[in-house]
């Protein structure tokens, strides 16, 4: 989604001529118009849904996001958190360290603040899909260590998962973590198993930022899903019924993990 001027990433601010919130909004408008054109062009051939990944940065993010949803009739969105204390936590180690400093200097406090901010986003928006649930571990010193030893963090994780399950949200199994060198995708095994125990459902994503990343590490992602006990993958499509009145023409369906494992795209 487009962001406000104060939330540009360093790489955006450093581009010759400078990015601006207006440029980002204009780019998003071009994306939306082109997506609608392609949706109509391939109407009988491809199930194309148009959505966006939202970026919850501060409480006022809600107004900005709801204005976007009002201006651009979408069919779904992914709810994500990339900032803590308005500082990006997945962009660089230096910025991660700054967010940790503001939190009080420990990973545990930063993780708690991250999951509290995520809970704020979940309660405000009830996103149909929750993106990279445990992104906060990416730039930490040991991103493959779980959260179980941090009682306060674990409590907040379980609280958030229970809330997602309560409104029927879908967790994204995100292979970008594997692309970035982590041993497990987002969310990790302990979180995935907890969500399964709550009756939660999962979808899959490569979180690609370019065509060369499409489908990246999907074979490993499916192996991970099988190891943690995920038997079905949820996907969205045009149809009825839909429990989410914001997207009345879109429904969810499921496919067996075994079907994906044998599909040519994944082999």
Would you write up a description of this structure?
β3 (83-84) and β4 (87-88) form a beta hairpin. The protein has 267 residues and is an alpha/beta fold. It is built from ten helices and nine strands. The mean pLDDT is 93. The strands form three sheets. The protein has a five-stranded parallel sheet with strand order 1-2-5-6-7. A two-stranded antiparallel sheet has the order 3-4. The chain has a two-stranded antiparallel ribbon with strand order 8-9. The protein is globular, with a radius of gyration of 18 Å. The protein starts with 9 loop residues before the first helix and ends in a 5-residue tail after the last helix. α4 (93-103) crosses α5 and α5 packs parallel to α6.
Q: What labels would you give this structure?
A:
267 residues; alpha/beta; five-stranded parallel β-sheet; two-stranded antiparallel sheet; 10 helices; 42% helix
Can I get a quick summary?
This protein is of the alpha/beta class and 267 residues long. It contains ten helices and nine strands.
């Amino acid at each position: 989604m487009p962001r406000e001027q104060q939330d540009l990433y360093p790489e955006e601010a450093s581009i010759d001529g400078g990015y601006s919130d207006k440029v980002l909004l204009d780019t998003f408008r071009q994306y939306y118009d082109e997506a609608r054109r392609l949706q109509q062009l391939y109407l009988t051939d491809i199930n194309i849904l148009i959505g966006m990944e939202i970026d919850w940065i501060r409480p006022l993010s809600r107004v900005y996001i709801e204005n976007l949803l009002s201006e651009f009739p979408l069919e779904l969105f992914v709810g994500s958190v990339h900032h803590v204390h308005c500082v990006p936590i997945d962009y660089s180690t230096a910025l991660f360290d700054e967010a940790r400093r503001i939190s009080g200097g420990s990973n545990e406090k930063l993780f708690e603040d991250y999951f509290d901010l995520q809970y704020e986003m979940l309660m405000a928006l009830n996103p149909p899909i929750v993106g990279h649930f445990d992104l906060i571990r990416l730039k930490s010193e040991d991103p493959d260590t779980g959260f179980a030893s941090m009682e306060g963090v674990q409590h907040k994780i379980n609280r958030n998962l229970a809330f997602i399950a309560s409104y029927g949200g879908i967790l994204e199994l995100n292979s970008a973590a594997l692309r970035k060198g982590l041993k497990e995708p987002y969310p990790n095994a302990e979180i995935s198993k907890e969500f399964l125990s709550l009756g939660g459902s999962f979808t899959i994503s490569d979180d690609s930022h370019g065509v060369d990343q499409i489908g990246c590490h999907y074979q490993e992602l499916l192996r991970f899903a099988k190891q943690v006990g995920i038997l079905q993958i949820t996907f969205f499509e045009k149809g009825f019924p839909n429990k989410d009145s914001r997207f009345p023409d879109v429904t969810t369906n499921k496919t067996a993990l075994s079907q994906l494992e044998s599909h040519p795209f994944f082999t």
